[in-house]
Amino acid sequence: MDVFNELSIEKLASELEKGRIHPREILRExxxxxxxxxxxxxxxxxxxxxxxxxxxxNWTYDSARPFAGIPYIQKDNICTLGVATDCSSRILxxxxxxxxxxxxxxxxxxxxxxIGKSNMDEFGMGSSTEYSAWGASLNPFDLSxxxxxxxxxxxxxxxxxxxxxxxxxxxxxSVRQPASFCGLVGLRPTYGRVSRWGLIAFASSLDTIGPITxxxxxxxxxxxxVEGQDGRDSxxxxxxxEDYFASIEKGIGDLRVGVLDVGMADWVDKRxxxxxxxxxxxxxxxxxxxxxxxxxxxxxxLAAYYTLAPSEASSNLARxxxxxxxxxxxxxxxxxxxxxxxxxxxxxxxxxxxxxxxxPEVTRRILIGTFALSSGYYDxxxxxxxxxxxKLRAELDELWKNVDVIISPTAPAPPFKLGSALDxxxxxxxxxxxxxxxxxxGCPAISVNGxxxxxxxxxxxxxxxxxxxxCFGKIVSRLPIGLQITAxxxxxADLLRAARAFEREHV
Amino acid sequence: xxxxxxxxxxxxxxxxxxxxxxxxxLARLDPLAPGMSLxxxxxxxxxxxxxxxxxxxxxxxxxxxxxxxxxxxxxxxEAIDGIARDEALSNARLRTSEFFRAPLILGxxxxxxx
Lengths: 507, 114
Known about the structure:
The structure holds two protein chains of two kinds.
Chain A: H1 9-17, H2 23-41, E1 44-47, H3 49-55, E2 71-75, H4 102-109, E3 113-118, H5 152-159, E4 165-169, H6 176-181, E5 185-188, E6 209-213, H7 216-226, E7 256-260, H8 270-286, E8 289-293, H9 301-316, H10 346-357, H11 360-373, H12 379-399, E9 405-409, H13 425-430, H14 437-441, E10 445-452, E11 480-486, H15 492-504
Parallel strand pairs in A: 2-3, 2-4, 7-8, 7-9
Antiparallel strand pairs in A: 1-3, 4-6, 5-6, 5-10, 9-11, 10-11
Chain B: H1 2-12, H2 17-26, H3 36-49, H4 85-88
Protein backbone atom coordinates (compact mmCIF):
# COMPACT_ATOMS: atom_id res chain seq x y z
CA MET A 1 0.00 0.00 0.00
CA ASP A 2 1.33 3.40 -0.90
CA VAL A 3 0.47 5.33 2.21
CA PHE A 4 0.95 8.63 0.43
CA ASN A 5 -1.88 7.92 -1.98
CA GLU A 6 -4.56 8.13 0.67
CA LEU A 7 -3.26 10.13 3.57
CA SER A 8 -4.84 9.24 6.88
CA ILE A 9 -3.48 9.93 10.35
CA GLU A 10 -4.37 6.44 11.51
CA LYS A 11 -2.60 4.74 8.60
CA LEU A 12 0.42 6.99 8.88
CA ALA A 13 0.63 6.34 12.63
CA SER A 14 0.60 2.60 11.94
CA GLU A 15 3.43 2.94 9.41
CA LEU A 16 5.41 5.10 11.82
CA GLU A 17 4.97 2.55 14.58
CA LYS A 18 6.23 -0.25 12.35
CA GLY A 19 9.20 1.82 11.34
CA ARG A 20 8.27 1.65 7.68
CA ILE A 21 8.37 5.40 7.22
CA HIS A 22 9.87 8.39 8.98
CA PRO A 23 8.13 11.75 9.50
CA ARG A 24 10.68 13.43 7.26
CA GLU A 25 9.43 11.30 4.34
CA ILE A 26 5.86 12.31 5.09
CA LEU A 27 6.83 15.95 5.30
CA ARG A 28 8.85 15.69 2.11
CA GLU A 29 5.88 14.23 0.23
CA UNK A 30 3.46 16.80 1.60
CA UNK A 31 5.87 19.65 0.90
CA UNK A 32 6.20 18.46 -2.71
CA UNK A 33 2.44 18.69 -3.10
CA UNK A 34 2.32 22.12 -1.55
CA UNK A 35 5.03 23.40 -3.89
CA UNK A 36 3.39 21.91 -6.93
CA UNK A 37 -0.23 22.74 -6.28
CA UNK A 38 -0.42 25.73 -3.97
CA UNK A 39 0.36 28.38 -6.63
CA UNK A 40 -2.92 27.33 -8.28
CA UNK A 41 -4.98 26.34 -5.25
CA UNK A 42 -4.21 29.08 -2.72
CA UNK A 43 -5.36 26.92 0.15
CA UNK A 44 -2.87 28.49 2.57
CA UNK A 45 -2.35 32.03 3.81
CA UNK A 46 1.11 31.05 4.93
CA UNK A 47 3.27 27.96 4.78
CA UNK A 48 5.13 26.90 7.90
CA UNK A 49 7.32 24.15 6.47
CA UNK A 50 10.35 25.27 8.49
CA UNK A 51 8.33 25.02 11.66
CA UNK A 52 7.12 21.56 10.65
CA UNK A 53 10.71 20.54 9.94
CA UNK A 54 11.74 21.72 13.38
CA UNK A 55 8.84 19.85 15.00
CA UNK A 56 10.04 16.49 13.62
CA UNK A 57 13.76 17.02 14.19
CA ASN A 58 14.19 14.77 17.20
CA TRP A 59 11.33 12.41 16.48
CA THR A 60 11.29 8.93 17.85
CA TYR A 61 8.19 6.77 18.01
CA ASP A 62 6.23 7.11 21.23
CA SER A 63 3.12 4.98 21.72
CA ALA A 64 1.69 7.67 23.99
CA ARG A 65 1.83 10.12 21.06
CA PRO A 66 1.23 7.88 18.03
CA PHE A 67 0.50 10.78 15.67
CA ALA A 68 3.70 12.69 16.38
CA GLY A 69 5.42 13.80 13.22
CA ILE A 70 2.28 13.96 11.06
CA PRO A 71 1.55 17.26 9.30
CA TYR A 72 -1.60 19.26 9.94
CA ILE A 73 -3.20 22.48 8.72
CA GLN A 74 -4.70 25.06 11.07
CA LYS A 75 -7.40 27.48 10.03
CA ASP A 76 -6.27 31.08 10.16
CA ASN A 77 -8.73 32.14 12.87
CA ILE A 78 -7.27 29.76 15.41
CA CYS A 79 -4.36 31.31 17.32
CA THR A 80 -1.04 29.60 16.80
CA LEU A 81 1.79 30.75 19.05
CA GLY A 82 4.29 32.81 17.08
CA VAL A 83 2.59 32.19 13.72
CA ALA A 84 0.68 35.03 12.10
CA THR A 85 -3.10 34.64 12.35
CA ASP A 86 -5.21 37.17 10.52
CA CYS A 87 -8.63 35.56 9.82
CA SER A 88 -7.99 36.42 6.15
CA SER A 89 -8.74 40.05 7.05
CA ARG A 90 -6.80 43.25 6.42
CA ILE A 91 -7.75 44.59 9.82
CA LEU A 92 -5.67 41.88 11.51
CA UNK A 93 -2.87 41.86 8.99
CA UNK A 94 0.42 41.01 10.65
CA UNK A 95 -1.08 39.92 13.96
CA UNK A 96 1.06 37.25 15.59
CA UNK A 97 -0.64 35.63 18.58
CA UNK A 98 1.41 35.56 21.79
CA UNK A 99 -0.42 32.42 22.85
CA UNK A 100 -1.80 29.21 21.36
CA UNK A 101 -5.46 28.34 21.23
CA UNK A 102 -6.29 25.40 23.50
CA UNK A 103 -7.13 23.25 20.47
CA UNK A 104 -3.83 24.08 18.82
CA UNK A 105 -1.89 23.47 22.04
CA UNK A 106 -3.51 20.02 22.32
CA UNK A 107 -2.71 19.20 18.69
CA UNK A 108 0.91 20.29 19.17
CA UNK A 109 1.07 18.27 22.37
CA UNK A 110 0.23 15.19 20.29
CA UNK A 111 3.27 15.99 18.17
CA UNK A 112 1.58 17.07 14.94
CA UNK A 113 3.66 19.34 12.71
CA UNK A 114 2.04 22.55 11.42
CA ILE A 115 2.42 22.78 7.66
CA GLY A 116 0.42 25.95 7.11
CA LYS A 117 -2.36 28.33 8.13
CA SER A 118 -5.30 27.95 5.85
CA ASN A 119 -7.21 30.54 3.86
CA MET A 120 -10.79 31.26 4.85
CA ASP A 121 -13.66 33.61 4.34
CA GLU A 122 -12.88 36.74 6.35
CA PHE A 123 -13.62 36.17 10.04
CA GLY A 124 -15.50 33.00 9.10
CA MET A 125 -18.21 34.87 7.23
CA GLY A 126 -18.91 33.17 3.95
CA SER A 127 -19.52 29.83 2.27
CA SER A 128 -16.96 29.85 -0.54
CA THR A 129 -13.65 31.36 0.67
CA GLU A 130 -14.22 34.09 -1.94
CA TYR A 131 -14.54 36.65 0.85
CA SER A 132 -10.94 36.21 1.92
CA ALA A 133 -9.02 39.48 1.77
CA TRP A 134 -6.15 37.46 0.21
CA GLY A 135 -8.10 35.93 -2.66
CA ALA A 136 -10.18 32.78 -3.01
CA SER A 137 -9.03 29.21 -2.64
CA LEU A 138 -10.04 26.81 -5.40
CA ASN A 139 -11.61 23.39 -5.36
CA PRO A 140 -9.02 20.67 -6.06
CA PHE A 141 -11.63 18.67 -7.99
CA ASP A 142 -12.44 21.56 -10.34
CA LEU A 143 -10.36 24.72 -10.36
CA SER A 144 -13.26 26.77 -11.70
CA UNK A 145 -15.28 26.06 -8.55
CA UNK A 146 -15.19 26.98 -4.91
CA UNK A 147 -13.96 24.64 -2.19
CA UNK A 148 -16.72 25.88 0.11
CA UNK A 149 -16.30 28.01 3.18
CA UNK A 150 -15.49 29.44 5.43
CA UNK A 151 -12.93 26.64 6.09
CA UNK A 152 -12.33 26.28 2.35
CA UNK A 153 -8.56 26.48 2.61
CA UNK A 154 -8.47 23.71 5.22
CA UNK A 155 -10.64 21.46 3.05
CA UNK A 156 -8.77 22.27 -0.16
CA UNK A 157 -5.43 21.59 1.53
CA UNK A 158 -6.47 18.16 2.81
CA UNK A 159 -8.14 17.24 -0.48
CA UNK A 160 -4.97 18.22 -2.34
CA UNK A 161 -2.86 16.03 -0.04
CA UNK A 162 -0.96 18.75 1.80
CA UNK A 163 -1.78 17.02 5.09
CA UNK A 164 -4.15 14.28 6.23
CA UNK A 165 -5.91 16.54 8.71
CA UNK A 166 -6.92 20.15 9.14
CA UNK A 167 -8.95 21.99 11.69
CA UNK A 168 -11.67 24.40 10.81
CA UNK A 169 -14.40 26.30 12.57
CA UNK A 170 -18.11 25.73 12.12
CA UNK A 171 -20.47 28.53 13.07
CA UNK A 172 -23.06 27.96 10.35
CA UNK A 173 -21.71 24.97 8.46
CA SER A 174 -18.17 26.12 7.79
CA VAL A 175 -16.52 22.75 8.47
CA ARG A 176 -19.22 20.51 7.03
CA GLN A 177 -19.97 22.36 3.80
CA PRO A 178 -16.34 22.67 2.60
CA ALA A 179 -15.77 19.04 3.61
CA SER A 180 -18.76 18.15 1.42
CA PHE A 181 -17.45 20.26 -1.49
CA CYS A 182 -14.02 18.61 -1.29
CA GLY A 183 -15.08 14.99 -0.76
CA LEU A 184 -13.91 14.83 2.84
CA VAL A 185 -15.16 14.17 6.35
CA GLY A 186 -16.04 17.28 8.38
CA LEU A 187 -17.19 17.10 11.98
CA ARG A 188 -19.01 19.78 13.92
CA PRO A 189 -18.92 18.67 17.59
CA THR A 190 -21.65 19.46 20.09
CA TYR A 191 -21.38 23.07 21.24
CA GLY A 192 -19.54 22.82 24.53
CA ARG A 193 -17.36 19.80 23.67
CA VAL A 194 -14.31 21.65 22.44
CA SER A 195 -12.71 24.74 23.95
CA ARG A 196 -13.02 27.98 21.99
CA TRP A 197 -10.16 29.65 23.86
CA GLY A 198 -7.91 31.14 21.20
CA LEU A 199 -10.54 30.97 18.46
CA ILE A 200 -10.96 34.48 17.15
CA ALA A 201 -14.66 34.92 17.77
CA PHE A 202 -17.33 35.31 15.13
CA ALA A 203 -20.55 34.32 16.95
CA SER A 204 -19.78 33.05 20.42
CA SER A 205 -22.95 31.02 21.03
CA LEU A 206 -22.61 29.27 17.64
CA ASP A 207 -18.83 28.88 17.03
CA THR A 208 -17.28 25.42 17.26
CA ILE A 209 -13.91 23.97 16.19
CA GLY A 210 -13.89 20.70 14.29
CA PRO A 211 -11.60 18.47 12.22
CA ILE A 212 -11.59 17.99 8.45
CA THR A 213 -10.14 14.58 7.63
CA UNK A 214 -10.06 11.92 4.95
CA UNK A 215 -11.72 9.25 7.13
CA UNK A 216 -14.32 9.04 9.87
CA UNK A 217 -11.91 7.22 12.20
CA UNK A 218 -9.44 10.08 11.84
CA UNK A 219 -12.18 12.55 12.81
CA UNK A 220 -12.87 10.43 15.89
CA UNK A 221 -9.19 10.47 16.83
CA UNK A 222 -9.05 14.23 16.37
CA UNK A 223 -12.11 14.81 18.53
CA UNK A 224 -10.63 12.58 21.24
CA UNK A 225 -7.52 14.67 21.62
CA VAL A 226 -8.98 18.17 21.31
CA GLU A 227 -12.16 17.87 23.36
CA GLY A 228 -12.59 18.28 27.06
CA GLN A 229 -12.54 20.75 29.90
CA ASP A 230 -10.53 23.88 29.69
CA GLY A 231 -10.18 26.34 32.56
CA ARG A 232 -10.10 29.16 30.02
CA ASP A 233 -13.50 28.43 28.44
CA SER A 234 -16.40 28.19 30.83
CA UNK A 235 -18.78 27.05 28.07
CA UNK A 236 -17.04 23.67 27.82
CA UNK A 237 -19.29 21.14 29.50
CA UNK A 238 -17.71 18.88 32.10
CA UNK A 239 -18.34 15.33 30.90
CA UNK A 240 -16.55 12.04 31.41
CA UNK A 241 -14.24 11.05 28.56
CA GLU A 242 -15.82 8.78 25.98
CA ASP A 243 -14.06 6.09 23.96
CA TYR A 244 -15.51 6.54 20.47
CA PHE A 245 -13.60 3.50 19.22
CA ALA A 246 -15.51 1.17 21.53
CA SER A 247 -18.52 1.50 19.23
CA ILE A 248 -17.34 3.02 15.97
CA GLU A 249 -17.32 -0.28 14.03
CA LYS A 250 -20.55 -1.54 15.61
CA GLY A 251 -22.73 -0.79 12.59
CA ILE A 252 -26.20 0.74 12.67
CA GLY A 253 -28.51 -2.25 13.02
CA ASP A 254 -29.93 -0.75 16.21
CA LEU A 255 -30.14 2.86 15.03
CA ARG A 256 -33.39 4.60 14.18
CA VAL A 257 -32.75 6.99 11.32
CA GLY A 258 -34.77 10.08 10.45
CA VAL A 259 -34.68 11.44 6.91
CA LEU A 260 -35.09 15.19 6.88
CA ASP A 261 -38.08 15.99 4.75
CA VAL A 262 -37.91 19.49 3.38
CA GLY A 263 -40.00 18.76 0.35
CA MET A 264 -36.80 18.40 -1.72
CA ALA A 265 -38.16 21.30 -3.67
CA ASP A 266 -36.66 23.18 -6.59
CA TRP A 267 -33.90 24.64 -4.47
CA VAL A 268 -32.24 21.24 -4.08
CA ASP A 269 -30.16 20.38 -7.14
CA LYS A 270 -31.36 17.24 -8.89
CA ARG A 271 -27.88 15.72 -8.74
CA UNK A 272 -27.91 16.14 -4.95
CA UNK A 273 -31.38 14.60 -4.78
CA UNK A 274 -30.23 11.60 -6.85
CA UNK A 275 -27.25 10.95 -4.59
CA UNK A 276 -29.23 11.53 -1.40
CA UNK A 277 -32.05 9.22 -2.47
CA UNK A 278 -29.46 6.48 -3.02
CA UNK A 279 -28.03 7.22 0.44
CA UNK A 280 -31.51 6.87 1.98
CA UNK A 281 -31.94 3.50 0.30
CA UNK A 282 -28.66 2.35 1.80
CA UNK A 283 -29.83 3.31 5.29
CA UNK A 284 -33.12 1.52 4.71
CA UNK A 285 -31.13 -1.65 4.07
CA UNK A 286 -28.97 -1.34 7.18
CA UNK A 287 -30.63 0.66 9.98
CA UNK A 288 -33.23 -0.55 12.46
CA UNK A 289 -35.76 1.87 11.01
CA UNK A 290 -35.94 4.78 8.62
CA UNK A 291 -38.69 7.39 8.69
CA UNK A 292 -39.23 10.87 7.37
CA UNK A 293 -39.01 13.68 9.88
CA UNK A 294 -40.07 17.28 9.52
CA UNK A 295 -38.81 20.37 11.30
CA UNK A 296 -41.79 22.69 11.55
CA UNK A 297 -39.69 25.83 11.89
CA UNK A 298 -37.20 24.86 9.16
CA UNK A 299 -38.29 27.77 6.96
CA UNK A 300 -37.42 30.23 9.73
CA UNK A 301 -33.88 28.97 10.31
CA LEU A 302 -32.21 31.03 7.61
CA ALA A 303 -33.68 34.30 8.87
CA ALA A 304 -33.06 33.38 12.50
CA TYR A 305 -29.46 32.27 12.01
CA TYR A 306 -28.61 35.26 9.81
CA THR A 307 -30.04 37.53 12.46
CA LEU A 308 -28.30 35.92 15.43
CA ALA A 309 -24.86 35.27 13.95
CA PRO A 310 -24.36 38.78 12.56
CA SER A 311 -25.69 40.25 15.83
CA GLU A 312 -23.06 38.41 17.81
CA ALA A 313 -20.46 39.25 15.18
CA SER A 314 -21.26 42.96 15.35
CA SER A 315 -20.44 42.81 19.04
CA ASN A 316 -17.35 40.60 18.68
CA LEU A 317 -15.88 42.70 15.89
CA ALA A 318 -16.49 46.02 17.65
CA ARG A 319 -13.02 45.62 19.17
CA UNK A 320 -11.34 46.08 15.79
CA UNK A 321 -10.82 49.81 15.67
CA UNK A 322 -7.36 50.07 14.15
CA UNK A 323 -5.89 51.55 17.33
CA UNK A 324 -3.90 48.61 18.57
CA UNK A 325 -3.24 46.11 15.80
CA UNK A 326 -3.13 45.86 12.08
CA UNK A 327 -2.72 48.59 9.54
CA UNK A 328 -4.54 51.87 10.02
CA UNK A 329 -5.01 55.17 8.33
CA UNK A 330 -1.94 57.35 8.66
CA UNK A 331 -1.59 58.81 12.10
CA UNK A 332 0.05 61.90 13.45
CA UNK A 333 3.18 61.59 15.51
CA UNK A 334 3.34 63.06 18.95
CA UNK A 335 4.21 66.71 18.89
CA UNK A 336 3.27 67.17 15.27
CA UNK A 337 0.00 68.58 14.09
CA UNK A 338 -2.93 66.31 13.63
CA UNK A 339 -3.04 65.08 10.07
CA UNK A 340 -5.99 64.86 7.78
CA UNK A 341 -6.74 61.27 8.67
CA UNK A 342 -7.53 62.07 12.28
CA UNK A 343 -8.92 65.60 11.90
CA UNK A 344 -12.47 64.28 12.08
CA UNK A 345 -12.04 62.99 15.61
CA UNK A 346 -11.94 59.55 17.17
CA UNK A 347 -15.19 58.19 15.74
CA UNK A 348 -14.16 59.26 12.27
CA UNK A 349 -10.81 57.55 12.80
CA UNK A 350 -12.59 54.32 13.75
CA UNK A 351 -14.86 54.57 10.72
CA UNK A 352 -11.96 55.00 8.33
CA UNK A 353 -9.97 52.12 9.83
CA UNK A 354 -12.94 49.78 9.86
CA UNK A 355 -14.01 50.89 6.41
CA UNK A 356 -10.59 50.03 5.04
CA UNK A 357 -10.01 46.97 7.18
CA UNK A 358 -13.21 44.97 6.66
CA UNK A 359 -14.33 43.34 3.43
CA PRO A 360 -17.85 43.53 1.97
CA GLU A 361 -19.36 40.45 3.62
CA VAL A 362 -18.05 41.32 7.07
CA THR A 363 -19.32 44.88 6.60
CA ARG A 364 -22.71 43.54 5.57
CA ARG A 365 -23.01 41.24 8.56
CA ILE A 366 -21.94 43.92 11.00
CA LEU A 367 -24.69 46.10 9.54
CA ILE A 368 -27.29 43.32 9.83
CA GLY A 369 -26.27 42.63 13.39
CA THR A 370 -26.15 46.27 14.44
CA PHE A 371 -29.62 46.77 12.99
CA ALA A 372 -31.06 43.70 14.70
CA LEU A 373 -29.70 44.75 18.08
CA SER A 374 -30.70 48.39 17.83
CA SER A 375 -33.49 50.03 19.73
CA GLY A 376 -36.84 49.61 18.03
CA TYR A 377 -35.78 46.52 16.12
CA TYR A 378 -34.35 44.30 18.86
CA ASP A 379 -37.70 42.69 19.75
CA UNK A 380 -38.78 42.15 16.17
CA UNK A 381 -35.55 40.57 14.99
CA UNK A 382 -33.00 39.49 17.59
CA UNK A 383 -35.41 38.42 20.31
CA UNK A 384 -37.63 36.57 17.85
CA UNK A 385 -34.60 34.82 16.35
CA UNK A 386 -33.64 33.61 19.83
CA UNK A 387 -37.18 32.31 20.29
CA UNK A 388 -36.90 30.39 17.02
CA UNK A 389 -33.91 28.68 18.62
CA UNK A 390 -36.10 27.64 21.53
CA LYS A 391 -38.81 26.40 19.16
CA LEU A 392 -36.26 24.39 17.19
CA ARG A 393 -34.83 22.74 20.29
CA ALA A 394 -38.31 21.79 21.47
CA GLU A 395 -39.12 20.24 18.09
CA LEU A 396 -35.84 18.33 18.02
CA ASP A 397 -36.33 17.10 21.60
CA GLU A 398 -39.59 15.56 20.41
CA LEU A 399 -37.95 14.04 17.32
CA TRP A 400 -35.10 12.53 19.30
CA LYS A 401 -37.62 10.39 21.17
CA ASN A 402 -38.23 8.50 17.92
CA VAL A 403 -34.97 8.72 15.97
CA ASP A 404 -31.31 8.43 16.93
CA VAL A 405 -29.82 10.33 13.98
CA ILE A 406 -31.19 12.54 11.19
CA ILE A 407 -29.76 12.43 7.68
CA SER A 408 -29.87 15.08 4.97
CA PRO A 409 -27.67 16.37 2.18
CA THR A 410 -24.93 18.66 3.48
CA ALA A 411 -25.46 21.25 0.76
CA PRO A 412 -28.37 21.83 -1.64
CA ALA A 413 -26.05 21.87 -4.65
CA PRO A 414 -22.62 20.59 -5.71
CA PRO A 415 -19.69 23.01 -5.44
CA PHE A 416 -20.66 26.10 -7.38
CA LYS A 417 -18.66 28.11 -9.85
CA LEU A 418 -16.41 30.92 -8.61
CA GLY A 419 -18.25 34.23 -8.69
CA SER A 420 -21.68 32.70 -9.23
CA ALA A 421 -23.10 33.52 -5.80
CA LEU A 422 -21.58 36.95 -5.19
CA ASP A 423 -24.16 39.23 -6.80
CA UNK A 424 -26.98 38.48 -4.40
CA UNK A 425 -25.92 37.72 -0.80
CA UNK A 426 -29.08 35.69 -0.26
CA UNK A 427 -27.82 33.17 -2.86
CA UNK A 428 -24.80 32.47 -0.68
CA UNK A 429 -26.89 32.31 2.48
CA UNK A 430 -29.30 29.80 0.92
CA UNK A 431 -26.37 27.44 0.33
CA UNK A 432 -26.40 26.92 4.11
CA UNK A 433 -29.97 25.70 4.43
CA UNK A 434 -29.11 22.21 5.64
CA UNK A 435 -26.32 23.17 8.02
CA UNK A 436 -28.03 25.74 10.25
CA UNK A 437 -30.19 23.44 12.36
CA UNK A 438 -27.14 22.18 14.23
CA UNK A 439 -25.56 25.46 15.39
CA UNK A 440 -28.99 26.80 16.31
CA UNK A 441 -29.68 23.76 18.52
CA GLY A 442 -26.14 22.88 19.63
CA CYS A 443 -26.34 19.42 18.02
CA PRO A 444 -23.29 17.70 16.53
CA ALA A 445 -23.19 16.75 12.86
CA ILE A 446 -20.81 15.18 10.41
CA SER A 447 -20.50 15.35 6.65
CA VAL A 448 -19.14 12.36 4.75
CA ASN A 449 -18.88 11.88 1.02
CA GLY A 450 -22.30 10.62 -0.12
CA UNK A 451 -21.45 10.18 -3.76
CA UNK A 452 -20.49 11.99 -6.92
CA UNK A 453 -22.26 14.06 -9.50
CA UNK A 454 -22.94 12.82 -12.95
CA UNK A 455 -21.14 14.63 -15.70
CA UNK A 456 -21.53 18.35 -15.36
CA UNK A 457 -23.86 20.49 -17.46
CA UNK A 458 -21.11 21.59 -19.79
CA UNK A 459 -20.10 18.05 -20.59
CA UNK A 460 -17.45 17.37 -17.98
CA UNK A 461 -15.85 18.85 -14.93
CA UNK A 462 -12.42 20.21 -15.59
CA UNK A 463 -9.75 18.06 -14.10
CA UNK A 464 -8.25 19.56 -11.05
CA UNK A 465 -4.94 20.36 -9.54
CA UNK A 466 -4.29 16.78 -8.49
CA UNK A 467 -4.35 14.52 -11.48
CA UNK A 468 -1.71 12.23 -10.17
CA UNK A 469 -2.50 9.10 -8.24
CA UNK A 470 -1.05 10.75 -5.18
CA CYS A 471 -4.27 12.66 -4.69
CA PHE A 472 -6.69 10.19 -3.16
CA GLY A 473 -5.28 7.42 -5.28
CA LYS A 474 -7.69 8.09 -8.05
CA ILE A 475 -8.24 10.50 -10.86
CA VAL A 476 -11.64 12.08 -10.62
CA SER A 477 -13.65 14.04 -13.08
CA ARG A 478 -16.82 14.51 -11.08
CA LEU A 479 -17.85 16.57 -8.08
CA PRO A 480 -18.35 15.27 -4.55
CA ILE A 481 -21.74 15.49 -2.82
CA GLY A 482 -21.88 15.31 0.95
CA LEU A 483 -24.21 13.34 3.19
CA GLN A 484 -24.87 14.95 6.55
CA ILE A 485 -25.71 13.04 9.72
CA THR A 486 -26.97 14.90 12.80
CA ALA A 487 -27.26 13.49 16.31
CA UNK A 488 -28.61 14.74 19.63
CA UNK A 489 -26.27 16.83 21.79
CA UNK A 490 -23.27 14.92 23.13
CA UNK A 491 -24.10 11.76 21.12
CA UNK A 492 -20.98 11.87 18.97
CA ALA A 493 -20.51 8.14 19.52
CA ASP A 494 -23.70 7.38 17.56
CA LEU A 495 -22.86 10.02 14.99
CA LEU A 496 -19.42 8.57 14.33
CA ARG A 497 -20.57 4.97 14.09
CA ALA A 498 -23.35 5.87 11.66
CA ALA A 499 -20.86 7.79 9.53
CA ARG A 500 -18.32 4.96 9.73
CA ALA A 501 -20.89 2.33 8.75
CA PHE A 502 -21.80 4.35 5.67
CA GLU A 503 -18.19 5.11 4.79
CA ARG A 504 -17.15 1.45 5.06
CA GLU A 505 -19.42 0.51 2.19
CA HIS A 506 -18.97 3.59 0.04
CA VAL A 507 -15.30 4.39 -0.19
CA UNK B 1 -57.92 46.04 14.80
CA UNK B 2 -55.45 43.18 14.44
CA UNK B 3 -55.01 44.05 10.76
CA UNK B 4 -54.39 47.70 11.65
CA UNK B 5 -51.79 46.86 14.26
CA UNK B 6 -50.01 44.58 11.78
CA UNK B 7 -49.95 47.44 9.27
CA UNK B 8 -48.59 49.80 11.91
CA UNK B 9 -45.97 47.22 12.84
CA UNK B 10 -44.96 46.87 9.20
CA UNK B 11 -44.64 50.63 8.82
CA UNK B 12 -42.60 50.88 12.01
CA UNK B 13 -40.20 48.21 10.78
CA UNK B 14 -39.86 49.71 7.30
CA UNK B 15 -36.24 49.95 6.42
CA UNK B 16 -35.71 53.49 5.22
CA UNK B 17 -32.56 55.18 4.06
CA UNK B 18 -32.44 57.12 7.31
CA UNK B 19 -32.61 53.93 9.33
CA UNK B 20 -29.75 52.46 7.32
CA UNK B 21 -27.64 55.57 7.73
CA UNK B 22 -28.21 55.39 11.47
CA UNK B 23 -27.09 51.75 11.51
CA UNK B 24 -23.91 52.56 9.59
CA UNK B 25 -23.14 55.22 12.16
CA LEU B 26 -23.84 52.91 15.12
CA ALA B 27 -21.59 50.26 13.61
CA ARG B 28 -18.76 52.77 13.28
CA LEU B 29 -18.46 52.02 9.59
CA ASP B 30 -17.57 54.50 6.89
CA PRO B 31 -20.67 55.82 5.05
CA LEU B 32 -18.40 57.05 2.28
CA ALA B 33 -16.58 53.75 1.78
CA PRO B 34 -16.78 52.39 -1.79
CA GLY B 35 -19.72 50.00 -2.17
CA MET B 36 -21.68 51.35 0.78
CA SER B 37 -24.70 52.34 -1.32
CA LEU B 38 -24.80 48.79 -2.73
CA UNK B 39 -24.57 47.51 0.84
CA UNK B 40 -27.63 49.60 1.69
CA UNK B 41 -29.56 47.96 -1.18
CA UNK B 42 -28.46 44.48 -0.13
CA UNK B 43 -29.26 45.16 3.48
CA UNK B 44 -32.76 46.35 2.67
CA UNK B 45 -33.49 43.16 0.68
CA UNK B 46 -31.99 40.90 3.33
CA UNK B 47 -33.88 42.51 6.18
CA UNK B 48 -37.13 42.46 4.25
CA UNK B 49 -36.64 38.73 3.77
CA UNK B 50 -36.02 38.36 7.50
CA UNK B 51 -39.38 39.86 8.31
CA UNK B 52 -40.61 36.28 7.98
CA UNK B 53 -39.66 36.12 11.66
CA UNK B 54 -42.52 38.43 12.51
CA UNK B 55 -45.06 36.35 10.61
CA UNK B 56 -45.18 33.39 12.99
CA UNK B 57 -46.43 33.08 16.52
CA UNK B 58 -43.63 32.67 19.03
CA UNK B 59 -45.90 33.38 21.97
CA UNK B 60 -44.96 31.81 25.26
CA UNK B 61 -41.41 30.97 24.20
CA UNK B 62 -38.41 32.17 26.13
CA UNK B 63 -35.38 33.26 24.13
CA UNK B 64 -32.44 30.83 23.96
CA UNK B 65 -29.22 32.69 24.69
CA UNK B 66 -27.01 29.65 25.25
CA UNK B 67 -27.80 26.09 24.17
CA UNK B 68 -26.20 24.55 27.26
CA UNK B 69 -26.94 25.52 30.83
CA UNK B 70 -24.18 27.84 31.94
CA UNK B 71 -23.08 27.01 35.45
CA UNK B 72 -20.27 29.62 35.35
CA UNK B 73 -17.86 27.37 37.22
CA UNK B 74 -15.55 29.07 39.66
CA UNK B 75 -11.85 28.38 39.73
CA UNK B 76 -9.78 28.52 42.90
CA UNK B 77 -8.90 32.03 44.01
CA GLU B 78 -5.21 31.84 43.18
CA ALA B 79 -3.07 34.10 41.04
CA ILE B 80 -1.94 32.35 37.88
CA ASP B 81 0.40 33.34 35.11
CA GLY B 82 -1.13 35.31 32.31
CA ILE B 83 0.34 36.86 29.22
CA ALA B 84 3.38 39.00 30.03
CA ARG B 85 3.13 42.71 29.23
CA ASP B 86 5.73 42.55 26.50
CA GLU B 87 3.94 39.63 24.89
CA ALA B 88 0.65 41.51 24.99
CA LEU B 89 2.28 44.55 23.40
CA SER B 90 4.25 42.53 20.86
CA ASN B 91 1.80 43.36 18.06
CA ALA B 92 1.31 47.00 18.96
CA ARG B 93 1.84 49.32 16.06
CA LEU B 94 2.97 52.02 18.47
CA ARG B 95 3.86 51.52 22.08
CA THR B 96 5.57 53.04 25.04
CA SER B 97 7.48 50.78 27.39
CA GLU B 98 4.22 49.87 29.12
CA PHE B 99 1.24 50.81 26.98
CA PHE B 100 -0.22 50.85 23.52
CA ARG B 101 0.29 54.31 22.12
CA ALA B 102 -2.71 55.93 20.53
CA PRO B 103 -2.47 58.46 17.75
CA LEU B 104 -2.94 62.11 18.53
CA ILE B 105 -6.58 62.80 17.79
CA LEU B 106 -8.08 66.13 18.68
CA GLY B 107 -11.53 67.57 18.29
CA UNK B 108 -14.21 65.95 16.22
CA UNK B 109 -17.92 65.32 16.72
CA UNK B 110 -17.66 63.64 20.11
CA UNK B 111 -16.13 66.74 21.72
CA UNK B 112 -18.31 69.26 19.91
CA UNK B 113 -15.19 71.04 18.70
CA UNK B 114 -14.56 71.78 15.06
